Fold this sequence. Notes:
- The protein is mainly α.
- The chain has 10 helices and no strands.
- InterPro entries: TM_pro_TauE-like, TSUP.
Amino acid sequence: xxxxxxxxxxxxFAAGFIDAIVGGGGLLQTPATLLILPHYPVASxxxxxxxxxxxxxxxxxxxxxKQVKFNYKVLIACVIAAFCASLLGAYSVSMINNAVIKPVxxxxxxxxxxxxxxxxxxxxxxxxxxxxxxxxxxxxxxGLIIGFYDGLIGPGTGSFLILVFIAVLGxxxxxxxxxxxxVNIATNLAAIIYFSSTGHILYQYAIPMAIFNIxxxxxxxxxxxxxxxxxxxxxxxxVIFGTILRFAWDVLVNKI
Length: 256
């Protein structure tokens, strides 16, 4: 058990670090936990990794909040929608076939990577001609979609949130990351409420992982704020590429 715990904590640290910068920490943490604890049900793994994700994301959000100004109307709309949708997604885990969803996500990710690479202005603040009402409605709409995805599948949620805040609402990478962290707190919390109510959280692993995820998140957020948008853009591309490889493996090799 000690060896398993050490490996899980290392994975949680790395996931927290990545997640604080551009999201996508679950792409490392979830499969690593599945590999290290193969004798537990998948639902228990999903529930367990939500605990370190919640705490790590909370630390990153607090770190960003001290230096980034939030758009609270947009944020609140997205948080409420994402929270409710994440609960529904967690409930739907056993009813929807991931094999149908993942190929679609894979195609979207490839398009995102191509667009981000060739559009050098992507992630630099761009004014969008949206009224406040339209901004709030768009935030709520995408909060529903991504929140449901997080409850259902999970990995990559932070990156999808950042993408929406940049491409749809015109935020820069730093502000998008900050807002995404707060929304991700809501989706993680919703999933934890469901999984804990069904007894699918392994607290003996979740608590130590949470501590290391917090440490990783602290340093990740600090580095992102220090280096700025250019650094975060490069990191975003790296994580998106890793996400593509992960989903391609699931779709083409594992056929999950």
